[in-house]
Amino acid sequence: MNNVKKVRQVKCYRCGETFGTKGNRGRFCSMCLQKHKNEYYVEWTKQRKKKYPWYASYLSAKCRCNTKSDIGFHRYGGRGIKFLISMEELKTLWFRDKAYNLEKPSLERMDNDGNYEFSNCEYIENRENSRRGNLGKSLSKETRDKISETRKEHYRRLRNG
User: Fold this and answer.
1) Are 7 and 22 in contact (CB under 8 A)?
2) DSSP helix/strand/coil, 82
3) Helices 30-51 and 55-66, axial angle in degrees (round to 10)
4) pTM of the predicted protein model
């Protein structure tokens, strides 16, 4: 038996151009399909942000702790910080801390060396979280250089696999 599918000519729903396709993909030409996917993704993202505004901070924190190729892994998972908070707990934090009233909410660990867990996290304004993070600027030059070398080594390992 010959499993080769015939190319059939179909008309794009969006622009009306005729193009060849195999199988059931016959709604949009490749250009319109890409536009359609982009529009759908943007709309889907807006809806998700409205329905689950805490989802982005959930994914970011989880990635920083669990994904070795993440740019911030060396500051979180690399230091042994674990991601132990569930989506439901994050939702509870969102409403407990009234993050919906904040201009740009940011998930913060109260104990910098503690894990991401319900008792150690809170939502605060992003600029406040950034200000707290910049306290390292007062470190000595030797300490800053050591941190810089650690980061460079991390990026080298990522590039080399």
Assistant:
1) yes
2) coil
3) 100
4) 0.57
41: enclosing H helix or E strand: helix 30-51
Cα gap 121→52, rounded to integer Å: 18
What are the structure tokens assigned to 53, written together?
């505004």
Asked if the model's pLDDT at residue 141 lies above 70, the reply is: no
pLDDT > 80? residue 3: no
Give domain limits for the chain.
9-51, 55-160
Which residue in 50, 124, 61, 62 sits closest to 94, CA to CA?
124
**Nearest in space to 154 (alpha carbons), one of 60, 64, 78, 61:** 78
Q: For 122-133, what is the HEC assignment?
A: EEEEHHHHHHHH
Running DSSP on this structure, what letter comes out for residue 15? T
